[in-house]
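Re: the 204-residue chain
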Amino acid sequence: MRAGKNSGFTLIEVLVALALFAIIAGISYGGLGSALDMRARIVDDSRKWREVALAFAMIERDVAAAADRVARNRDDLPLPAFTGNAPEMSREATMIEFSRMGDGEAPSRRVGYRLNGNTLELLAYPSIDAAPRDTPAVYALLNGVATMATRFLDAKGNWQARWPAPSSSSIGANDAKKAPLPRAVALTITLLSGEDMTRVFALP
């Protein structure tokens, strides 16, 4: 009786199998890499929009607590209760600065917002009226901001580029007449990634 032929693989069959395995592994690795890159982008986008939402929520909370209360600077000169795009009336070149009523989390104090480089910052002063050596606590709210712009709604329904508006700027040394608060603030920020966002915050 003749012995059967060997049923093992030939060298060519083994090489073909290895080549096919390498091709399949390469395709699988490329797909896994794409999936991981997609996941990283989703995580980064989620973090970015969460930080944007938190920054807007902080601004909304402060603006909603704005107080019609004239402040005093370090030289004991009066400052309007609310200023916007008026660096000569702010303490630290803030784009928005105003007196804020106290709540359960913070006392009544002066707060400001500014763009420092590419970072949106909150400046929190110890109180509404400044002592000679008062300095604010500075908090980074949002990184990656390219530009920041503000507008202010007056009592006639017109948007003003600065506040107090030229027609209502009447703070004198004797504090005889206070500039009114704006009715709303429109804040527009542009991120370094290219997105533009505008939020409108109503004042009390």
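The chain has one helix and eleven strands.
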